[in-house]
Design a protein that fits this description.
This protein is of the alpha/beta class. The protein contains 12 helices and 9 strands.
Amino acid sequence: MAVRLRRTDFDIKIERDIQKLNVPLFFETIIKKMPKFPKDIITGTGLVSVIRAKDSSQLVDVALALHKGGCKAIELTMTTPNALSVLEKTISKLPSDEVTLGVGTVLDPETARAAILSGADFIVSPTLNVKVIELCRRYSKVVVPGAFSPTEILTAWEAGADFVKLFPATAVGPGYIQDIHGPLPQIKIIPTGGVDVDNAADFIKAGAEAVAAGSSLVKKSFLASGDMDGIAALAAQFIRNIQTARQK
């Protein structure tokens, strides 16, 4: 014989509270507050902003200007003096749930480890070094090795790259990505070198997961004049062009 449990006043109150709770809104709020993964941030905005300079004194301000313009993936290069100390300072100035900071021009696993210990979320190399990929996999960090030929690109991907940096992209243009994706559609490519505000959309339309821009975004003229508003405005234009290209 089935036993019917008596509902208490407490049970009734709980049921009423649940009915009042806006469950979809609750979960939407939770999701918004969850930290975003570096890969998602890079893919989301479609732009990796590369800061390369001979003088590190402005780099924190440049990073803040890029963030103001909507950039959420920022790469500091190891060719910049005191790059890792600048990275640590920049991390403390930007919201970690919105921005992912990485280190570029990493040539060996020792440098990759030093960058990771300084707080880098992702590592970028101009060339293919499988040991750098292995080091980043060990520490569960996003890694973007550089490659050019189809063989290098596939080798990087099979070694565990999250994205493959096509460098120098200016030598081949957007059509090269379409050619690569013919036999290798699974590879997520980020073109670098020669990408500017005018052709970024062409690379996105050709199938790039995102683009990376350095001197065409953080221009020497902006650095010389201290024009941080100019950097922010150009960054915003980059992102608008990328998002428009994705909608077509």
